[in-house]
Amino acid sequence: MVRIRRFEEEAMRRAMAGEFSGMHSSSGQEAAIVGACLALRDDDYITGTHRSHGHPIGKGADLKPLMAELYGKATGICKGRGGSMHLADRKVGIIGESAIVGGGIPLATGAGLSIQVRRTDQVSLCFFGDGAANQGTFGESLNLAAIWKLPVIFFCENNLYAISTPVAKSHGQPDIALRAAGFGLPGVIVDGQDLAEVHAATALAVSRARQGGGPTLIEAKTYRFEEHCLNLQVPIPYRTPQELEHYKSQRDPLVLYRKEMLGSGIAEAQIDAIEGEVAAEVADAVTFARQSPLPDPHEVYDYLFSNPIHYPPEPGP
Amino acid sequence: MSSPPIGATVRELTYLNAIVEAQREEMLRDERVILIGENIDIYGGSPLFDTFDEKRLRNVPISENGFTGMGIGAALTGLRPIVDLTIASFVYLAADQIINQAAKLRYMTGGQLSVPIVFRACTYYNICNAAQHSDRPYPFFMNVPGLKIVAPATPADMKGLLKAAVRDDDPVLVFEDMNLWTKKEQVSTDPDFLVPIGKADVKRSGKDVTIVSIAGCLPKALAAADALQGEGISAEVIDLRTLVPLDTDTLLESLGKTGRVVIVDNSHRTGSVASEVSAVMSEEGFEILRAPIRRVTTPAVQIPYSAALEKPLYPSTERIVAAAKSIL
Question: Which residues of A are less than 8 Å from B114 in CB distance?
């Protein structure tokens, strides 16, 4: 959680200083992300969203290629072709971070199908938001996964707002997890600010999926501390200052988990040491990104096809 | 050319059976190949149920975007799915997943992912199905970098290109034409018989005019060449077969021989495949063109129900002949 928070805080500072273009911060949603990721194995699959930084970091990705991607560098995880909304790191199991809302849900379902056909005991976990729950892909995918009991965990990071539209104005009832019953799969609501609760619910769903018990919909009630994205102006406030202040002061997952660790006897010095290591890791990532070369414009066609046939060595007029 | 090599075993196949046989052979060859589609247990894929079970033959609910995306997710994680979208007008429902995911994921991830998937879509037209079942939507998808697109017009090309598509590591759209379903020819039984993606086929050699045929227009293009022959005009007929990547070399070579081009395309005229072929040939072959390029296409009007209205819209032998003669 600390790696996500510090990475994004530093990235925000660098973006605001004009070193690269905008970003969508996961700040406030770390417990939901990390609690889910900790329930997975290295060979499991994940799909994510435009708010893409937390998912690879939560799954243990190296920060350097992620930061370099934000800078649009050749050493970026996606070679400068993805950027902030698409920090997909295949090495940690990510098969797409979709900036088309709801776009990753069928992909995760397909990974579940693949697991079933190949007869492995992997699982597939799909991160999506409350906004995506209103896309057709959500209902279509839950239905498909339920028909064949695919090993998929549909994990909703419900941060209460689809950009500026609140759940209360975009859903017929506030609990997205209730929709699971209509498709014939279990739906679970968890406190998305509580790392242990998120982890326990996800671990249970993962365990059931590995044993052939089929998919689960988990709804983590969470909150986004920053605006939808860095460069989006907020001409009309859609959240009250009191609400924001409440979540930041009372419901910050990092603060809550720090208290829990201290309560369970972990020394403050040990926690501080981890914080220090993370700060150094983030600083190293920025240095790496800044020093990395930009991609070569002559290589812009690279990665379009597996075997480029007719494309010219450089873009034409 | 797609004719089987001398000595190879051949068997007569219809265009429709070529589709079934290509899928059967690839599923036998590679256990990663699966078929996803609506009603495949009753229509289309039903003969395959004799050989394969429901693990690899996935009959799906009517959720085009969902099951297409599911196929893409399976392709990202070790399978090589064939997604049967049936009627080509339904491809629009899956267009988001095809365009925003399949076509982009390799590129957007800097080559970390690959999407070895085949999307099959059959054009149903000239059979009084009205506007929502009759589209020939190839040109839409030509505008999407990252997709390969084939449109076979013979049983041998159908089999060879579909098999090549299954073996390709990129997403390939295969457009079929139901008007060709009953066409028959001798097709190689070699399980490794492939037609390369990206190669046009010179069906008939000629020196006066090049007729470029796209997708199911081939029988009419060949009939037009016969009619022109009767009038002493020698027409070369090229079956484009692959729309992306375009076989510019074969097109320009033919232009070098004839200096005149008629492009026959049953998609709507505006921004058609013919438009792109015309643009490439005029840009890269302007000096050897001896007359303006002519496009014989379907006009930019929706497909009406009544045969009296529908039939005259598509390229006909007569229109192709007239277009050729207009530039001679």
Answer: 306
